[in-house]
Amino acid sequence: MNKFLKTLRARLFFWYTGTLIIFALFFYFVIHILALPYGNEYFFFLFLLLACIGFYIIYKITNSITYLSHRIRHISRKNLEERILDIESEDEIGELASSFNSLLDNLDDAFKREQQFIADVAHELKTPLTTQRSSLEVTLSQDRTKETYKKALEEALDENNHLSSTLKNVLDLAWSETHEEKKNSSIFNLSELLEELADIAEKIKQSKNIVVKSSIHKDIFVNGFKDKLARALLNIIDNAVKYTHAGSLSLKLRKTHNQALLTISDTGQGIEEKELPKIFNRFYRGSKTDKILGSGLGLAITKSIVSLHQGNINVESKLNKPARNASQSDTGGGTTFTISLPLAQ
To answer: pLDDT of 255-304, one tens digit each?
Structure first.
């Protein structure tokens, strides 16, 4: 009730109904019943007084709206950090100013992330392009043997493959953040998808001494994009294989309430605690990734795709002691990703 009394609607309502009641009472008692002298003059004075009060109320409302409109017109991409703090009322205009400030916060954050993304992409593409160009210029600077030219072309091809992979990841990340219309999604069997990924994990582990374990409940269905979610989960599995010298990779899927709960665990080298909050950032690569190829976009893509499916992803990790040789398992830690997705209705 107190909130309603502070609104413009309440002020206008009470002014309008109050004016009608006062006019009616005045006309009935002063002019009709009491028949006071100068009644018409009193009536005109009362009319003028209430009109002035009404004009003042309308002026305050329109003045606040005009000021708000003026401030909005002068805010552009160049000054998104500005906020409308002059309007402190708790009525609809104050609420509108607060909502507009929230919109500016979201826009400012979006533009900053866009600028950072463009800068990161430019940096990631600049380095291999510069390396490729320098290598080719040195090779062409003088006559060389057939083997030297072949080696230079192979190196250029490797750099080109790295660029292609980075661009593909950028496109996947851009797609996952467009929030494609839900009508393009479909219901699919997540259990079957995870079984397929378990088979893929068996193949990509190659000669590593890694045992793939799976515990997958049957017929768990979710709504979304099967191929994109497969890519997101495969990113985690691929990282697990890369950073596990020997040990195990575990895939689990079960139902819990209205959610599909999926865990991917490994006994690999683990992630330092200070790096855990950063692993989903674009182009972030941990301190132990120097010798492993990658663009640093895999987990960013995974989180974005999971979010697109209205899901959540969490990670827990403990540093591992590396095995002394390939025949031994790493000991003492590993990483576990937990993903929850809403079940299909």
So the answer is: 988 999 999 999 888 888 888 888 888 766 665 555 555 556 778 888 88
251: which strand partners? Answer: 214, 264
The residue segments making up the domain with residue 278 are: 183-342
In a 3-state reduction of DSSP, which class is residue 245? Answer: coil
pTM above 0.70, yes or no: no
> DSSP character for 331?
B
Q: What is the per-residue pLDDT across 34-60, written as a single tens digit (0 to 9) for each?
A: 666 766 676 677 777 777 777 777 777
Task: Tell me the C-alpha to C-alpha distance, in Å, between residue 11 and each of 15, 119, 232.
Answer: 6, 52, 55
Question: Quick one: pLDDT at residue 183?
Answer: 59
**Cα gap 147→53, rounded to integer Å:** 94
Q: How far apart are CA 253 and CA 219, in angstroms?
A: 10
Based on the fold, state whether residues 209 and 333 are members of the same structural domain: yes
Give the span between the Cα atoms of 40 and 22, in whole angstroms. Answer: 15
User: What CATH number is given to the structural domain containing 202?
Assistant: 3.30.565.10
pLDDT digits (tens, 9 = 90+) for 84-136: 777 766 667 777 888 888 888 888 877 877 777 777 677 667 767 777 788 78
Number of separate domains in the chain: 2
Going across the sheet that includes 334-342, the strands are 209-216, 246-256, 259-266, 334-342, 312-318
Q: Report the alpha-carbon distance of residue 5 to residue 262 in Å, rounded.
A: 50
Residue type at position 38: Y
